[in-house]
């Protein structure tokens, strides 16, 4: 069990590192593209397409990360009106839907990635499958995190709308 947890931690770190690296690269490419267009009066043909590829990857990996951290929006006000057993059944159903969604991403994302493997993107010359491979990759992470959610109570973070008066006082007093 310890080895499995260590392997999952490595995958978690890989997901976050890949997402943040892609986000940083996308930001730098867009800055370079704007600089080139406005100052050098030259627009590199690859910049827009590469930033689009990175945006798609960051978005799909963000979906998986959102499931890991329980960040996706949940409509719990209706579910909270039910008895606890019904709430637990709704929670289990939602987790099964997450796993199903991950499976759909893997299956159809893989089929689409293979389908697009023979075409190339005009700006970068990369195969189109590089863009679409984000779907099955995010699907694998979503599947793993969905299965992990089966062993955790609740699907969403608890929202607390009460004002933290101590924090507000510290801000007013200039302590923060």
Automatic annotation (TrEMBL):
GO molecular function terms attached to this record: transmembrane transporter activity
Domain Tripartite ATP-independent periplasmic transporters DctQ component: 26-150
Protein name: C4-dicarboxylate ABC transporter permease
Native species: Sporosarcina ureilytica
Transmembrane segments: 14-35, 50-67, 92-110, 130-152
Annotated Gene Ontology cellular component terms: plasma membrane
Keyword annotations: Cell inner membrane, Cell membrane, Membrane, Transmembrane, Transmembrane helix, Transport
Family: Belongs to the TRAP transporter small permease family.
Localization annotation: Cell inner membrane
Topology in membrane: Multi-pass membrane protein
BP GO terms, sorted: C4-dicarboxylate transport
InterPro entries from the UniProt entry: DctQ, TRAP_DctQ
């Amino acid at each position: 069990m310890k080895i499995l947890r260590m392997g999952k931690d490595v995958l978690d770190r890989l997901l976050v590192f890949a997402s943040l690296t892609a986000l940083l690269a996308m930001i730098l490419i867009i800055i370079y593209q704007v600089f080139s267009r406005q100052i050098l009066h030259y627009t590199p043909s690859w910049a827009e397409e590469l930033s689009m590829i990175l945006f798609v990857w960051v978005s799909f990996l963000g979906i998986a990360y959102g499931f890991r951290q329980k960040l996706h929006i949940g409509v719990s006000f209706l579910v909270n009106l039910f008895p606890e057993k019904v709430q637990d059944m709704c929670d289990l159903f939602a987790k099964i839907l997450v796993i199903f969604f991950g499976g759909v991403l893997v299956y159809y994302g893989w089929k689409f990635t293979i389908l697009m493997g023979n075409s190339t993107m005009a700006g970068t010359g990369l195969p189109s499958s590089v863009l679409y491979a984000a779907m099955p990759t995010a699907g694998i992470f979503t599947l793993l995190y969905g299965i992990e959610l089966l062993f955790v109570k609740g699907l969403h973070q608890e929202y607390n709308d009460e004002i933290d008066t101590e924090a507000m006082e510290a801000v007013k007093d200039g302590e923060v």
